Amino acid sequence: MSSGAEPGRHIPAGPTAEHRARHGWISWRLAAPLVFVLTGVLFVASAHNSEGTDLREGRYTDLASLVSNESRQVSDLKREAAALQTEVDRLADGVQNQAVRRLQQKAERQRHAAGFTEVTGPALQITLSDAPADVINSSTQKVDRMIVHQQDIQAVVNALWNGGATGITIQGQRVISTTGIKCEGNAVQLDGVPYGQPYVIVAVGDLAALAQAIDADSYVQTYIEDSRQPDIAVGWELTALPSVTLPAYTGLRDLHYAQVAAS
C-alpha cells in the first residue's frame, strides 16, 4: 500500500515534530488499554475456536476431511454416471439404423486408444511427494521448491506420453486426453477430485523407452536435481514394475468446448 500523494494533489503542511510527538503520546495512553482488551478477546476466541488444539493442526485436519468428503461425493456421482452411461449404451445398441451402426463400430475401434479399456503390461511407477516437514521448516529455500505442483505432475505425464506409454494412471485414476490437473490449496485435483500427496503415477509401456523419455525431459530432470538437494529434498521415487493392469477410464465422457459468441 503506497503512502505517497496522489499525482497533482497538494499536501498541506503538517504539524510540527513536537506537536506530533505530544499527540502520539496522548493517543497511545488512550489506545493502549483498548488494545490490551481486544488482544484478550481475540486470544479467548482463538482458544475457543481451536478447542484446545493448535489452529494450524486444525486447519490441516479440516483439509483432510474436506478431501475425503469431496472424494466420496465424486465417487458416488461417478457410480451414478456409470450406471446412466450403461443405460445409454443399452438403448443405443437397440437402434436399428445402418448409419448409427457404422458410427458405433467406428467408436468401438477407438475405445482402447481413448482409454476406455484396461491395459496390461510392464510399467514405470513414479512417486512425487513434498519434502519432509523438518526440511520445510528449517530450509532457507523457497517453500514452492519443496512441494509438488500441478506442473510437476503434468511434466512427468507428458514425458511418459512422449516415451510411448499406452496407458497412465495418477492416484489410480486413468488419464485420458481430457483429464484436468489443477492445484487447489494443499491438494491437487484430478477431474475435480482432490487428492493429497504423495502422487503416484503409473505408466504402461516399453520400460527402456519410458526411462529414456524421463531422462530427456529438462523439466523433470530439474525436479530430480531438486530432490537430491538436502535443503529442498522434494520427493522422487522411480520403480520398474514387471506387469500391471491399469483400469479403464470410468469418468464422465461429455466434452465441453468454447463457442464463438453471437455478434
Briefly summarize what is shown.
The chain has 263 residues and is α+β, with helices and mostly antiparallel strands.
Describe what you observe in this structure.
There is one protein chain. By secondary structure, the protein is an alpha+beta fold. Among the domains are: about 55-110; about 120-245, Alpha-Beta Plaits (2-Layer Sandwich). Helices cover about 50% and strands about 15% of the residues. The chain has eight helices and eight strands. The protein has helices spanning about 15-50, 55-95, 100-110, 110-115, 135-140, 150-160, 205-215, 220-225, and strands spanning about 120-130, 165-170, 175, 180-185, 185-190, 195, 200-205, 235-245. The strands form two sheets. It has a five-stranded antiparallel sheet with strand order 3-2-7-1-8. The chain has a three-stranded antiparallel sheet with strand order 4-5-6. Helix 6 packs across helix 7 (about 205-215). It is globular and about 70 Å long. The two termini are about 40 Å apart. The model is unreliable at about 1-60 (pLDDT under 50).
What topology does this entry show?
Blueprint (H helix, E strand, L loop, with lengths): L16 H34 L4 H39 L4 H12 L1 H4 L4 E11 L3 H6 L11 H13 L4 E4 L2 E2 L6 E4 L2 E4 L2 E3 L3 E6 L2 H10 L1 H10 L7 E12 L17
Antiparallel strand pairs: 1-7, 1-8, 2-3, 2-7, 4-5, 5-6
Helix pairs in contact: 6-7
What is the tally of helical segments? 8
Question: From N to C, what is the helix and strand string?
Answer: HHHHEHHEEEEEEHHE
Number of strands: 8
Shape: globular
Helix % is 40-55%
Strand order of the largest sheet: 3-2-7-1-8
Instruction: Report low-confidence residues grouped into runs of 5 or more.
Output: 1-61
CATH architectural label of one domain = 2-Layer Sandwich
Query: Regarding quaternary structure, how should these chains be classified?
Result: single chain
Amino-to-carboxy terminus distance: 41 Å
Q: Mean pLDDT, rounded to whole units?
A: 76
